[in-house]
Write a structure and sequence with these properties.
Elements: H1 7-12, H2 14-40, H3 47-68, H4 71-92, H5 98-119, H6 123-145, H7 151-175, H8 187-213, H9 228-244, H10 253-281, H11 296-300, H12 303-319
Helix pairs in contact: 2-3, 2-8, 3-4, 4-5, 4-7, 5-6, 5-7, 6-7, 7-8, 7-12, 8-9, 8-10, 8-12, 9-10, 10-12
Amino acid sequence: MILAFDLVAFVENKETLIVIGLIFGILVFATLLFWIMGLVKPNANIAELKMRTKSWWMMATIFVVATVLDPAISFVAIGALSFMALREIASISKNMRDEDRKILIWCYLAIPVQYLFAYYKQYSLFLTFIPIFMHLWIPFMLVLRGVTENIGRAMSVLPTQLMLTVFGVSHLAFLLSLPELEGFKAGGRGLLLFVVFITEMNDVFQFTWGKMFGRYKIIPKISPNKTWEGFIGGIITTTVVGYFLRFLTPFSGMEAILICLSVAITGFIGDVVVSAIKRDIGMKDTGNTIPGHGGILDRIDSLALTAPVFFHIVYNLYYLK
């Protein structure tokens, strides 16, 4: 496996450069805004916002570097994300028996296998390995442990965690393995940047609109900060931004609108699903890896669902022969 960085190809990919410039432009704006707010109103409660912005700088830099370098590095980076998310949710799960933790090794071993299928463009194996083969193998391994108390619960917990943190997230990597389309210069990198940017901006927009105008809560027992105002404002803003960034994709204008709506709604679903898990455990965050944001899974809960939905829409529209 040869790792290389094609500087000429990177510079010539204007679409990717524009989005990278946009990402860091937003971060520069936010950093200056909070710095000025601190000068004008020294007592303003913006410490969390500053911390979140610092973490965004770190995450954006890692993501951009991993995306623009050799695809092999991108696969390793996204695979590492799956590993950290799986480790995080497994470590906090109260529905896992001591016996189940010994079966976790099979879940961790499934990560490199799943990403190798993506890297070598083995589409059928990529799609079936975890949903079919691991769904058979994990229950069988649990049965071999010989402890039947609550085994039905264990048979649902481990495969679900694997689907959420590995199968869903690995679709981001497979975007880089998609074949080139005539007249579509941004390619898999463009699609990857698009879905990650749109998903993360949807989280930010829903949070911001909710903070500014939120009044009517959607599911207060699960996620008290989710409001209809934030949800609707978020999906509209996300769709508008996605429409103007469609140059990263092969989408027509109408396709961009409909797909961004799908991504925004799916992102909300991913967010509240993980929120429900956290409420069950009695925790606010899944970890403290990212200051101001919580754990890895707190940051990629939406992506775990938007990535497969986005991938299969794109694949069926443009790559299915």
